[in-house]
Amino acid sequence: MAKTSSVEKNKRRAKLAKQYAPKRARLKAIANDQSLPPEEQFAARLKLAELPRNSSKTRIRNRCELTGRPRAFYRKFKLSRVALRDLASTGQIPGMTKSSW
Known about the structure:
Layout: H1 4-32, H2 38-50, E1 73-74, E2 79-80, H3 81-89
Antiparallel strand pairs: 1-2
InterPro entries: Ribosomal_uS14, Ribosomal_uS14_bac/plastid, Ribosomal_uS14_CS
GO molecular function: rRNA binding; structural constituent of ribosome
Protein name: Small ribosomal subunit protein uS14
């Protein structure tokens, strides 16, 4: 089980990213628009840099929903490999069985 503080910090990052997403997208569009004058593009980049760092989507870490484990994460199930195997072995994931040959 991951530290609760790490999991909560990641949740705060996700909340901030969702909150600032429209503003960030608008500023990025202005900064990358080649038809605008360079001064406007630069001003948009400065405003983008003033936003909180944790409001960036890339700062969010994929974590297991059950354990909070940050590594070996399966996006399809939003679980780590350890939790996925436990649930699959007990038959709690429909259609998934442990392979044997």
